[in-house]
Each structure stands twice: as structure tokens, then as C-alpha cells.
């Protein structure tokens, strides 16, 4: 059985339970359009990404840090000539990401409903506390979780602390998520189990080179629907 000897099942949130990354990609395309009148046709994504990553230790993950990175990048690339009304457009784009309608992946409610009556089910999500709590509330999935953990980053020690608080062994813990870097490899490293469900548009910062991944250490499935089918076998 895929969940044999498991006591705690943890889910990532963004791009595991609901669609998230496409909203950022859409904003990036609009960002490029706004800057085109100042710079002409030009790829501005590299500069934006570099500012996002550079500021992670200050602003953390999520829409607020992304919005600030857009503003900083726009100021730098236009040599501070960008109009105030265009800065306002960038702020509005950030607000839109912070309030988008939650689009759950197929079979997510059914999966959480099935598991929550049989296991301790928790959510471990990375990002801004207010933003992540808002998304969980808007999703309507909050009541399925025994606890929700919003963390600044997902490293082996992050998972170890949570597992210790839950008073279970690593091998009794399984993480389901879309990011090898954040959801899968750190859990495997501490002796836990993991199920990888890739999303269609992963953020570049979450990508891991193939030669750094031992696929024999975790399970890969195509969708939440397949996961639900497997656990009912």
C-alpha cells in the first residue's frame, strides 16, 4: 500500500492543491508589455527573476516579494523614468495575485475528505503568513487539516521540527507536493516518504537538475486524481 505504516500525511498548497504559478507567469507577461514602451522589445524576465531571488531573504516567497521585485526591476531598467501610473499598474497586479479565485485541482476535495477521516492530515506551505492563510480560507479546504504550517522555507530541518512536534517518526510521515526542491528531496533526506505530483508551470527557482535526483527514493504520480485512485486500491 502506498500509505502503509503512515501516521501523518502532509500536503503542499500552491500548485499541489490549487493553481498558483500561472498567475505569476501572466503577471510577468503584462510586466514585459508595460516596460516595452520604455525599452522596446526586450526580455526582462532574467532581471526580474534575479531581483526576486536576491530579495528572498528579505521579503520571502509569494506575491508581495514578487510585486516589489517588479517595481525594483522596472526602476532599474528604465533608469527611474517609469511613470507613476505604470508603477501603480504593477502594484495592482500584485494585489490581483493576492486575491485570485482559488481553482482547485481535480479530486482535491474528495482526496482530503477521504484521508482526513483516516489519518492526521496537515498542510505545510511556504510563503507569507497572511497570503497563505487567505488562500487556505478561500479554498474552503481548511477544515480537512489537523494543522496548517506556514513556513519561510522548506529545508530538512523545517520538516524535522514539524515531525518532532507531531511526535511521529520520519518513516511515518509522507509529504505530497509539486516541488522536488521544497516538498520531496528535503523530506527524503531526513528519512520521510514523499509523493511528487509535478505541476505544468514550475517556478525556475524550484527546478532541480536530473542528475541531482534519485527517483527511486520517492513516488511520482501524474495528478491528485491518480493519487486518490492509488490510496483506494
In short, what is this structure?
The protein is an alpha/beta fold. 48% of the residues lie in helices and 12% in strands. It contains ten helices and six strands; from the N terminus they run βααααααβαβαβαββα.
Please, could you describe this protein's structure?
By secondary structure, the protein is an alpha/beta fold. The chain starts with 7 loop residues before the first strand and ends with a helix. It has 2 domains: 8-17 and 105-232, Rossmann fold (3-Layer(aba) Sandwich); 21-98, Putative phosphatase, domain 2 (DNA polymerase, domain 1). It is elongated, with a radius of gyration of 19 Å. The protein has a 6-stranded parallel sheet, with helices on both faces. It contains 10 helices and 6 strands.
